[in-house]
Write the C-alpha cells for this entry.
Amino acid sequence: MVHCSGNYPTVLKSLPLWGTNFCLVYSGQAEHQEEVKMKKSVLLGALAVTGLAAGMASAGTLDDVKARGSLNCGVTTGLVGFAAPDANGEWQGFDVAVCRAVAAAVLGDSSAVEFVPTTGKTRFTALASGEIDMLARNTTWTFSRDVDLKFEFAGVNYYDGQGFMVPADLGVTSASELDGATVCIQTGTTTELNLADFFSANGISYEPVPIETNAEAQPLYLEGACDVYTTDASGLLATRAAFENPEDHVVLPEIISKEPLGPLVRHGDNGWGDIVRWTLNALIAAEELGVNLGNLDSIAGETKNQEIKRLLGAEGTLGEMLGLDAEWAKRAIAVGGNYGEVFDANIGPDTAIGVERGLNAQWTDGGLLYTPPFR
Amino acid sequence: MATFSDVPSESFRLSMLINDKRYRAYTFQFIALLLLIGAFSYLGYNLVKNLQSAGLNISYKFLGDPAGYDINQRLIEYDNQSTHWRASLVGVLNTLLVAFLGCITATIIGVVVGVLRLSNNWIVSKLMSVYVEIFRNVPVLIWILIIMAVFTSVLPQPRDFRGANATASMVADSFAFTGRGFYSPAPIFNDGSMVVVVAFILSIAGMFYYRRYAKKALFERGQMLPTFWPSIGILLIPSILVFFVMGQPISLEYPALKGFNFQGGIYMRASLISLWFALSIYTAAFIAENVRAGILSVSSGQSEAAASLGLRPNRIMNLVVLPQALRVIIPPLISHFLNLTKNSSLAIAVGYMDLTGTLGGITLNQTGRAIETVLLLMAFYLTISLSISAIMNVYNNSMKLKER
C-alpha cells in the first residue's frame, strides 16, 4: 500500500479497504493495458494451448463449427478491399468473402461468421490454438509455414508480390535507386526477409522502420518519416486508395518476391481442410464454367455441362463426400458470386483499389487460376 | 498394586499434525505447497503433451538460425545473416539503452518537478500539479504515439533540407533536427587520441580525489575549500592541453545530406527520442509525487532547527532535508524504474527495435515459436528487472537509517 500510494492516492483514498490487492491490479492494468492488448492474442494463444488444447486433438473442426453455429475466421485488423468493416460495421472484402463462402457452404448462412482481427504477429498462434477455425488474412504460403508451423494451405486466392510505393515527387522510377532510403515495413510478415534479401542482393543500404499495423504505417509514410512503404503490391494499392491524393504516390514496377496468398487451416484435420480448399475451388471453377450470380438458380437445369451439374449438386454426390449437403457450393457461390465477381466487387478495376486481374486471371485468360476438376 | 504416574507423553503422534496448534500451520502450508506444485506440474505437463500431439516440441534450436531481417538501431555488430540470438541481444541492448536514458531523465525531471510543486510560488506549484495530473492519468502508449506524431509532423524531413530553396537548414552546419531524428557530429579518433582519452580519464579520477580531499579538509580542519570551479578546471584543462600538444588527434565527422537521408555523424532516431522522452515525462510525473511525499515526510522542525544553526536554504535542503527524504523516496523509485523498463516494451508502436520488437516480434513471427520466445522474453525481462532492483537495493541500504 505504501508502495502504491504515490501512484494512485485518489483511488486508494476512496477505497482504503481494498488495500494492496486493488492497487496492484489497478496499476497493472493502467500501465500495461496497451501492451496487454497488443499481445493478447499471443498470450491467449499460449494459454489456450496450455489449457484447452484437448479440443485440438479431437480434430473435428467441422463438428465444432456446426455445434457452435458460427465460423471463427481470422482476418486482418483492417485492409480496405481485403478485410475491413464497412460503414455499418459489417466486415467486407476479398478475404472476408472466402470466410463467408465457407460459412455458407457449411452452415447455410453467410452471416454466421465471427471475424477475429489478427495482426501479422498473432495470426498463427490464434490458428494453432484453435481460437479461429481458419485464417483468411492475405497470408503467404511458404514452406516453413506449411511444414514447420504445421498448417495446411487450402490454395491460393490471390497471387501477389512485394512492391514499393514512393511519393511521386521523389522522382524515383526503380527500386534500385533506393540506396540509403528509409523504408517503412509492416512487421511480422515475409516482407522483412524479402526486403533484406533484395537490398543485400543489390548491394544497397536502407534504414528499416518496423511498424506494427498498416494503419500506423500510413501516417508515418504520409508525413515523410519514411521515403518508401513496402508490402505486398495488393496491400500497397489498397493503402493508396485510402489516401487523400492517391495520384501523388506511385507503386514502383519491381515486384521483388512471390507471395501466393491464401486461406489456411491447422494440420491434422484433413476433412476440414478439404472443405475450405474446395469451397475456394468452387468459386474459381464457377467463374471458369460461367456460373454467376445471375444464372446460378437456372443454369443447373438448363446446362448440358455435367461439371456444372456436379458443382451445383444437381448430379453426383460431391457434397456428401465432403460431409456436407448437395448444394454446398451453390450456397457458397450465392454469397458474392464466382471468383471474378468477388474480385471485381472488392478490389477490381472499378473499385477505388483498382487492381487488374493480371496473374489472378483464369488460366484460359493467361492467368494462374487453375482449379482441379470437380468430379 | 501398581501405581500409575500419569506422565504427559512428549512423543509425537500423527494426530498432532491436525490437533496441535504448534504443528497445524506447517501441515496446512505443506498441503498448500503440494497443491500448488501439483497445479503447476499439471499445467506444464498438459502444455508439453498437447504441444507434442500438435507436433510442436519446445526447442530453442531456432536461436542459432540466421535471422534474415535487418534492425535499424544496432549497438553491436549485426546484419541480416546473424542469428536470432544475436538479434535478441541487439534488442536487449536497445531495451537497456532506452531504460537507462529514461531512468536518468525521469529522475532529474521528477526531482525538479517534485521540489517545484512545493514551491511557494502559486503559478509554479499549480503548473507542476497540472503536469503531474495530466501525465500520470493518460496511458503511456498514448503519450508515446502523440509525441512520435508531433515529432514527425512538426520537424522538417530530410527532403526539406535539399535544393536551392530549402525550407529547413542545419544548425551551425553541424546539427540537423529532422522528423527522422537528430544528427550531430561524431568524434573520429585518429592516431594519438588514446593519450587524450587517458588524460581525460585521469582528470576525472583527479577531480574525485580533489573533492574527497576538500571534504576531508572540511571535516578535519573545518577548512572550506571551493569545489565547483577547481573541479571543472581539473576536469578540462589537462585534457585540452594534451589535445593541442598531441596535434589535435580527435576530429569531428559532420552529417551531410546524401541521397534520401543525412549520412555520417551520430544519428539519434526519432523512435528512440520519442520513446525516451515519453517514458521519461510519464515516469517523472510519478517520481515527482514520491519526491514531494519524501520532502513532506521530513518534519518542518528539522529545517527550522537547521535554520537556527545558521545554515542557508540550499544547504538545509542538501544536508538536512534530502538525506532524510531519500529514505522515503528510494523504495518507490525502484518500482518506477522497473515500470519504466517494462513500459519500454511498447517501443514497437514507434518502430523502436527493443527486445519485444526483435525476439518477441519478428523472430516470434518468422519462426512461429511463440511459447519459446515468450518464455525467453519473460526470462530476459525478469533478469533485467531483478538486476535493477538489486542495484537499487544496494543504494537503498547505503542510504537508509543506520540504527546504532
About this structure: Chain B touches chain A through 60 residues (CB under 8 Å). Residues 383 and 389 of chain B are 10 Å apart (CA to CA).
